[in-house]
Amino acid sequence: MHYTINNLNLIKKEINNISSNVNIVAVSKTFNFETIEPLVKNGHLHFGENKVQEAVAKWSEIKKSNKNLQLHMLGKLQTNKVKYAVPLFDYIHSLDNIKLAEKISSEQIKVQKKLKIFIQVNIGNEKQKNGILKNEVKSFFDKCVEKLNLDIVGLMCIPPKENSNKDYFGEMMEIKKKIGLENLSMGMSSDYLDAIKAGSNFVRIGSKIFGDRN
Ligand SMILES: *Cc1c(COP(=O)(O)O)cnc(C)c1O
User: Fold this and answer.
1) CA distances from 145 to 28, 110, 121, 188, 201 (A)
2) Residue 86: CATH number of its domain
3) Mean pLDDT across 179-194
4) What is the pLDDT of residues 48-107, one digit of tens each?
5) What are phi and psi of 8, to 5 degrees?
6) What's the CA-to-centroid distance between 75 and ligand 1, angstroms?
7) Nearest CA, atom 6, ligand 1
8) What pTM did the predictor assign?
9) N or C: where does the chain have the smaller number of CB atoms within 10 Å of the terminal CB?
10) Residue 32: which residues within 8 A CB-CB, separation 6 or more?
11) Number of domains in the chain
């Protein structure tokens, strides 16, 4: 059995003890398709990338012949890349400003497609991090839905590394409930179990499946 399948099976087993309702996004950034292919062939459906150009090169052809594959854009999305991102991806987890929202909206109309979108929240209030500030998420959400007709399905965060993430995950759940959203995208290789215990239903796992990235 390919090591990625083995790794994913172990992760699934752990997760199933806590929740039966979790989507595992296998984060395949930096890995070539040869490394990813065993998982695709084994029927795994959710894959995540953080760079548009890399994703287009890696996934465009494969997606044509695997209609069920769900591709997730996780990284910072520049407005000038939106025209390449919208046709390829099924989800965007990193919506973090109104210019980007407007660009996605107009591009979606052009190609007659509606992506599922998470608003990225700067939950640790960090200067250097992307994301909408906590107290601005609701008004940002309203604009995205009412003015731009986006399909906002949930909230995403990358919490500060140095602190206990449990509190941040809890805060994310509070905001999600207040707005009345369905999904939370939080939890990576180091903290997915805590994230799921706090209610996350989309975990983004890279190195624990594919190994270390250089
Ligand atoms: C790379 C990346 C991940 C996966 O990180 P691992 O620690 O390897 O699991 C998750 N989310 C985002 C936004 C990423 O860029």
Assistant:
1) 30, 18, 17, 28, 22
2) 3.20.20.10
3) 97
4) 999 999 999 999 999 999 999 999 999 999 999 999 999 999 999 999 999 999 999 999
5) -65, -40
6) 9
7) 206
8) 0.97
9) C
10) 58
11) 1
Ligand 1 pocket residues where CB is under 6 Å:
27, 29, 50, 74-75, 158, 188-190, 204-208
pLDDT tens column, 95-148: 999 999 999 999 999 999 999 999 999 999 999 899 999 999 999 999 999 999
Query: Long-range contacts made by residues 11-14, C-beta under 8 angstroms, separation at least 24?
Result: 11/192, 11/205, 11/208, 11/209, 14/193
Give the pair of three-digit tokens for residue 147: 């003015």
Q: Burial level of 49, CB count in 10 A (0-12/13-18/19+)?
A: buried
pLDDT (0 to 100) of residue 189: 97
The H-or-E segment that residue 131 falls in is none
Range of the domain at 64: 3-210
Judged against a pLDDT cut of 90, whether residue 163 lies above it is answered with no
Coil vs helix vs strand at 112: coil
CB contact at 8 A, 89 and 68: no
